[in-house]
Specification:
By secondary structure, the chain is mainly alpha-helical. The chain folds into two domains: about 110 residues, DNA polymerase, domain 1; about 200 residues, Orthogonal Bundle (hpI Integrase, Chain A). It is built from 16 helices and five strands. A hairpin with a 6-residue loop joins β4 and β5. The longest helix has 23 residues. The termini are far apart.
Length: about 350
């Protein structure tokens, strides 16, 4: 969700967010730098900065160093009671402010006191497709969106993990995909299905041709994390660093002003999957994440142990993975109705 607007401009806000000294960068600039060091996406950066602005403006432009747990709690309570935001949006604001104190201001807050302000998300059972529904969905999709959906279902990837795959992350020899800097900043290995090896090879041949054409036209660079780009200044043109699913058009990187080819936008995949589900007459709320849920559930149905599935999904805590056991236990999957006795 987009942070709430408090009718301010960057210029007005800049009069408050002053530097700590005559030669020091302003707070928001330092905050953005910290986010980039941690490899946060441009979209997350914008969202987090907006929440920090809202937090400071809510407290009449007081500097965050003058505030603490009590003021954070007041702001989060205001969001819930006055703005009626969801628990997930409230958590997003909480994370943005916590990042400010931890990684920009280097202030240790009372974690126990903060915990009472963190909202608990309602527990929901994930939407899962049957194997037949997955086949119908994939049969309806075509082109690159189909290949992306196959990768997500075949390896249990999140949509943004799939969008951000680089050529070097596809390990054809060992039949695995390396998911880097996923949620939680942990790399992991997952499955590269045998059935996708040939389609992916053919797809990458076309991507390479496009990359070579970009190089001839003076483009061909790709976004790299700041530290990596500084260490290897020529790496952004190398084939192995290119996106597996590049965008059809070159665009301007708003962080640097450089014209380059980014990855496909996730909304392209979201719209394609939504349309395919409707066309396949699947009467469920189907999103790209539904394929990840279905991957985990189908592995459980096939007898794979929960720890293996946890590693493939990249969950830190096995409790997160356990939700899929609840999917298997609901309704007629685990209990025989007395009506059928």
């Amino acid at each position: 969700m987009t942070p709430i607007s408090y009718s301010t401009t960057d210029r007005l806000f800049a009069t408050f967010v002053v530097a700590d000294g005559p030669n020091s960068p302003k707070l928001l600039d330092r905050y953005r730098d910290a986010l980039r060091v941690k490899h946060y996406s441009a979209r997350t950066e914008d969202t987090y900065v907006a929440w920090v602005k809202n937090f400071i403006l809510f407290h009449n432009k007081r500097h965050p160093l003058e505030m603490g747990v009590e003021e954070i709690g007041q702001f989060l309570t205001h969001l819930a009671s006055e703005k009626d935001v969801s628990a997930s949006t409230q958590n997003q604001a909480f994370s943005a402010i916590l990042f400010l104190y931890r990684h920009t201001l280097r202030v240790d807050l009372d974690e126990a006191a903060l915990a009472r302000f963190r909202p608990q998300r309602a527990k929901t059972v994930p939407t899962v497709l049957s194997k037949g529904e997955v086949r119908r969905l994939l049969d309806t999709l075509t082109g690159t969106p189909k290949l992306i959906a196959q990768v997500m279902y075949g390896g249990g990837l999140r949509v943004m993990e799939t969008m951000r795959l680089r050529v070097k992350d596809i390990d054809f020899e060992n039949h695995q995909i390396i998911v880097r800097d996923g949620k939680g900043e942990n790399d992991r290995f997952t499955i590269l299905p045998d059935s996708l090896i040939q389609p992916l090879r053919l797809h990458l041949e076309q991507v390479n041709l496009m990359h070579q054409q970009d190089l001839l036209q003076g483009f061909g660079t790709v976004y790299l994390p700041l530290a990596l780009e500084q260490k290897y200044p020529q790496a952004n043109k190398q084939w192995i660093w290119q996106y597996v699913f590049p965008a059809p058009e070159i665009s301007t990187d708003r962080r640097t002003g450089i014209r380059r080819r980014h990855h496909i936008h996730e909304t392209v995949v979201q719209k394609a999957i939504r349309a395919a589900a409707k066309h396949a007459k699947i009467d469920k709320h189907v999103t790209p994440h539904t394929l990840r849920h279905s991957f985990a559930t189908h592995l459980l149905q096939s007898g794979y142990d929960i720890r293996t599935i946890q590693e493939l999904l990249g969950h830190k805590d096995v409790k997160t993975t356990m939700i899929y056991t609840h999917v298997l236990q609901r309704g007629g999957l685990a209990v025989r109705s007395p009506l059928d006795s």
